[in-house]
Amino acid sequence: MRQAAHGGPVNILALSGGGSGGAFGAGALAGMTRGHQRPDFQLVTGVSAGALIAPFAFLGSSWDSALQDAFGGERSYLIHSPKASFLARLVFPSGLGSHGRLYELVDHFVTPQMVADVAAETSKGRRLIIATTDLDKQETVLWDMGAIAAYVGAAARQLFRDVLIASASVPGMFPPVIIHVSDGVHAYDELHVDGSVTTPFFITRLVADVVSTSLDQLNGSNVYVIVNSQLASPPHESSLETIELLGRSF
How buried is 193 (Cβ within 10 angstroms: 0-12 exposed, 13-18 middle, 19+ buried)? Predict the structure, then answer.
């Protein structure tokens, strides 16, 4: 990553979860671009809603229009509705427990071009890391999205897409995403859900096991953290409707 920074400080961006608050992260990145304050990030990490933003952030300001389209354009109906919580926006009319709208959103924007561009940027020493939660082990799992993208083809795009969907799949609202994995000898299935179940966001400690860069080489890095939610929730009288109760619980 130091080489990708051309000898300068490594710029690290961590994107948290936050449901529909992801619109804040999308706007923050666009604002940094317009204000000429946005650096090239050598390491981008994302969890939950932050995972959906992360590929766009990783690929740079040239992808801002697509990012804004996802959270504020004609397809934003998939995640925005004035009469429903974020969780309800994603599942209705598909029904409780369906990935329908979330799948549609991710499948539309995770194009072969996006996957190819992530692979190309990764070859320069940059890294895009997404977190999910292994439901069986109750552990955070980090996915090197550039390594996935480098496989090329439909299988790479499918896994890339599935990891993003898994990272944003809130337990109780969405079924776990089944991800097919192999240890080189045996092939088996794992169940993955929202990465924010086990980590709200992550920077270097967890990444050290994935990225072949010692933490010493990251001394002097610039770390940017975008929290896509309120740091403290104001009092709010909750209804007894299931959807709202679940929404207030995450």
Answer: buried
Contacts of 132 (CB under 8 A, 6+ apart): 140, 141, 143, 163, 166, 167, 177, 192, 193, 194, 195
User: Residue 189: helix, strand or coil by DSSP?
Assistant: strand
Could you tell me the pTM of the whole model? Answer: 0.81
User: Per the omega criterion (within 30 degrees of 0), is the bond before 235 cis?
Assistant: no
Residues 6 or more apart whose Cβ sits within 8 Å of residue 147: 122
CATH of the domain at 110: 3.40.1090.10
In order of 1, 158, 219, 224, the CA distances from 10 in angstroms are: 7, 30, 9, 11
pLDDT in tens, 7-30: 788 899 999 886 655 577 788 898
Domain that holds residue 182: 2-248
Extract the runs of DSSP E, i.e. beta strands, from 48-176: 127-134, 139-144
